[in-house]
Amino acid sequence: MPTHAASDVQLDADALEAGRRLFAAPCAFIAGAANPDSLPAPGRTEVAFAGRSNVGKSSLLNALTGRRDLARTSSTPGRTQQINFFDLGGRLVLVDLPGYGYSRAGKKATRNWTRLIQLYLRGRPTLRRVMVLVDARRGLGPADREVMDSLDSVAVSYQVVLTKVDKAGKGADAAEVVARRVAETIVSRPAAHPEVLATSSANGTGIEALRAALAALADPVQLG
Ligand code: GDP
Q: Is the pLDDT of residue 19 over 90?
């Protein structure tokens, strides 16, 4: 009879409750940076969200925060081409990085984004983790590997979050199988968090677990 089971369950319930509480707090846009000079000064702990364009990043941020248009979907011009910072309850800053992989903006603009993101990722003492979003139907692609390579090289912790698991297939393509395969692939990467999360903004799968993971990284609740 394993003696740790009850406390594990308790821990999970506490972690989920911490996630629920954190995301019940108000979430507000702080700043958008289209160039390095306009990055806000580092303040609270930050968690950034990265992923290929169209991976479902805006939808995931909206699902997490329970808002319909916190992060604009990629079809909306403007905000998605800069780094956007959102304060969550004064305990965590959610950082929405521009999607990578392709752009209609031309080579020069792409170079500028890449430079901006690299400057941000390298020089941010408050950045606790980067959530690398990966479409569950595609698995890791070359652009994802490049991003993970650069995060490994600057020793910024990151965690893979599968998106759109409601659309995942069956058998070898099932979300749990993809998650396990990705976890096995990244095990030797120095800055990769071992746990791969599987989420769907469409049906809510994994959203509570992701909130719990983020709450574990947030600054403590201020008492008094
Ligand atoms: P972004 O470019 O990464 O911000 O991606 P969006 O959030 O704009 O989503 C891209 C497309 O994928 C949109 O058509 C969304 O409706 C769709 N999408 C996003 N999340 C999900 C999901 O969890 N399940 C399904 N089936 N579709 C999704």
A: yes
